[in-house]
C-alpha cells in the first residue's frame, strides 16, 4: 500500500514542481484513513489533461473530455483527473457537461459521499471540507450535499450506497436513507451493467445481510431487473456471498425467473454457471444416475451447486450429488473428445457413408464407455461396432 502512495507521490511532486496543485483523492484516501488495503490510487489536479500529458513520459488518454489521463509510474497506472464540476444532470445518470475547475473543493463537492470526498496531499495532510473522517468514525454513509438532489442527479449513487454499506459495514445516514426510498424509481435510468458491477462488490462485502435489508426496505429492489421479480422474503432468506450464487438460489427456487436472467446482461460464462446449476438441480430432482450427473456437469458447476446447497438446502438429493462429485475423478472419459474413435474411424469401417448415424453411433459408444461396459480402446470399440452396428442401419 505504502509503495502505491510512494509511486503516486512522485506524480504529485512533479505536478507541484510545475506549479500545479495535486492530491490523492476518493476511495484511496478513505481506505488509507480506515487502514484498509488499497487497490488503486487516484489523483486530482488543477492541471488540464493536455498539461498532464505533456508532463509525463507514459500516458494513456482514457477520457480526456472528462479530464482523465492515465499516467504510468513504476509500471503502475494512476488515474489523474482534472478538477471538475459537473453540469446539470437531465438523464439522472450523467452530467450534461463537465466543466473543468481550478478549485479543489469544487471537485470534492461533486463526489458522492462525504467519505469519498476527501483529498490528501503527498505529505499525508488531509483536505476534508465535508467531514468525511467524522462520517467514517460514525461508520455512516452520507451524501455530499442534499441527498435527494444527489440521487436525483445520478441514481447509481443509491446502489453505490448499498455497496459501501456491505463492503465497509457502514450504516446509512437518516436523510440519505429517506432520499433513497424517495428516489428508488429513478433506478430505471441506470444501465444494468453498472448496477451489476456494484452488486458484485456488494455481494462480496462483509455486511451483505444489512445491505439486502436496505435494498428491500428502500424499494430499490423493485426497480432493478430480475430482482424486481423476487419476493422480499425470498431475497432476504437466501444465504449467499456472491451475486451469481444469489441468482442460482433464486432461479432454483423459482424456475420461471430463468427467462429474466438475460436482463442482467451477464457474460456467457456467468450465464453458463447459473443455468448449469439450475440444470444440475433438475437432473438431481429427476434422480438421474450419479454417473450421468457426474459426466454431464463440469466440476465447477458441481462444486458451486454443492456450496450453495450447503447453505440453502436446494435439493433433497444431496447424497446423489456427493456420489456424482466423487465419481468425477474416476470417469473413463470426460467428454466425447476423449473417445479413442471418431466419426472418421466409423466412416472408414462402412466405406465412407456419412450421415446422422455417425452421431447416433458415437452417442451409444459414449454411454457404453461411460458405464464401463466397453473399454475406451480403439480396437475394442471398433470390434464392438462391428458386432453391434449393422451395415443396413449404418446406411440410413
Ligand atoms: P473502490 O474502492 O471500489 O474503488 P471508490 O470509492 O474508489 O471505491 P470508484 O468507483 O473507484 O469508487 O470511484 C472513485 C471516486 O470517484 C469515488 O471515491 C468518488 O469520489 C467518485 N465517484 C465515483 N462514482 C461516483 C458517482 N456516481 N457520483 C459521484 N462521485 C462518484
Ligand atoms: Mg476506486
From TrEMBL:
Keywords: Magnesium, Metal-binding, Nucleotide-binding, Nucleotidyltransferase, RNA-binding, Transferase, tRNA processing. Coiled coil: none annotated. GO terms for molecular function: metal ion binding; nucleotide binding; nucleotidyltransferase activity; tRNA binding. Residues 22-140 form the Poly A polymerase head domain. Residues 257-385 form the CCA-adding enzyme C-terminal domain. Residues 169-227 form the tRNA nucleotidyltransferase/poly(A) polymerase RNA and SrmB- binding domain. One of its GO terms (biological process) is tRNA processing. InterPro entries: Bact_CCA-adding_enz_type3_sf, CCA-adding_enz_C, NT_sf, PolA_pol_head_dom, PolyA_RNA-bd. Pfam families: PolyA_pol (PF01743), PolyA_pol_RNAbd (PF12627), tRNA_NucTran2_2 (PF13735). It comes from the Bacteria. Its cofactor is Mg(2+). CDD domains: NT_ClassII-CCAase (cd05398). Belongs to the tRNA nucleotidyltransferase/poly(A) polymerase family. This is tRNA nucleotidyltransferase (CCA-adding enzyme).
Amino acid at each position: 500500500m505504502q509503495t502505491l502512495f510512494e509511486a503516486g507521490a512522485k506524480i504529485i511532486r512533479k505536478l507541484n514542481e510545475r506549479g500545479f496543485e495535486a492530491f490523492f483523492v476518493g476511495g484511496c484516501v478513505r481506505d488509507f484513513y480506515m487502514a484498509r488495503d488499497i487497490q488503486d490510487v487516484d489523483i486530482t489536479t488543477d492541471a488540464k489533461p493536455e498539461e498532464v500529458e505533456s508532463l509525463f513520459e507514459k500516458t494513456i488518454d482514457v477520457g480526456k473530455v472528462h479530464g482523465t489521463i492515465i499516467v504510468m509510474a513504476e509500471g503502475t497506472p494512476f488515474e489523474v483527473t482534472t478538477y471538475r464540476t459537473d453540469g446539470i444532470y437531465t438523464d439522472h445518470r450523467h452530467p450534461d457537461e463537465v466543466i473543468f475547475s481550478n478549485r479543489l473543493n469544487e471537485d470534492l463537492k461533486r463526489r458522492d459521499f462525504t467519505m469519498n470526498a476527501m483529498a490528501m496531499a503527498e505529505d499525508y495532510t488531509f483536505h476534508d471540507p465535508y467531514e468525511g473522517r467524522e462520517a467514517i468514525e460514525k461508520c455512516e454513509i452520507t451524501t455530499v450535499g442534499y441527498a435527494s438532489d444527489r440521487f436525483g442527479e445520478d441514481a447509481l449513487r443509491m446502489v453505490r450506497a448499498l455497496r459501501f454499506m456491505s463492503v465497509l459495514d457502514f450504516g446509512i445516514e437518516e436523510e440519505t436513507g429517506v432520499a433513497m426510498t424517495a428516489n428508488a424509481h429513478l433506478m430505471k435510468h441506470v444501465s444494468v451493467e453498472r448496477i451489476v458491477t456494484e452488486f458484485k462488490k456488494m455481494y462480496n462485502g462483509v455486511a451483505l445481510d444489512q445491505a439486502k435489508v436496505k435494498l428491500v426496505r428502500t424499494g430499490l429492489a423493485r426497480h432493478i431487473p430480475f430482482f424486481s421479480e423476487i419476493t422480499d422474503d425470498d431475497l432476504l432468506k437466501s444465504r449467499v456471498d456472491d451475486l451469481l450464487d444469489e441468482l442460482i438460489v433464486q432461479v432454483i427456487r423459482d424456475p420461471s425467473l430463468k427467462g429474466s436472467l438475460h436482463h442482467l446482461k451477464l457474460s456467457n460464462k456467468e450465464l453458463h454457471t447459473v443455468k448449469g446449476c439450475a440444470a444440475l438441480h433438475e437432473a438431481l430432482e429427476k434422480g438421474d444416475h450419479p454417473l450421468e450427473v457426474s459426466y454431464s456437469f463440469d466440476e465447477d458447476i458441481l462444486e458451486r451447486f454443492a456450496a450453495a446447497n450447503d447453505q440453502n438446502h436446494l435439493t433433497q438429493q444431496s447424497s446423489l450429488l456427493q456420489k456424482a462429485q466423487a465419481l468425477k475423478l474416476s470417469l473413463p472419459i470426460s467428454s466425447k473428445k476423449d473417445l479413442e474413435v471418431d466419426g472418421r474411424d466409423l466412416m472408414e469401417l462402412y466405406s465412407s457413408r456419412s450421415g446422422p448415424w455417425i452421431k447416433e453411433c458415437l452417442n451409444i459408444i459414449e454411454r457404453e464407455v461411460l458405464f464401463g461396459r466397453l473399454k475406451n480402446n480403439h480396437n475394442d470399440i471398433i470390434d464392438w461396432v462391428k458386432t453391434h452396428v449393422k451395415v443396413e442401419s449404418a446406411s440410413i
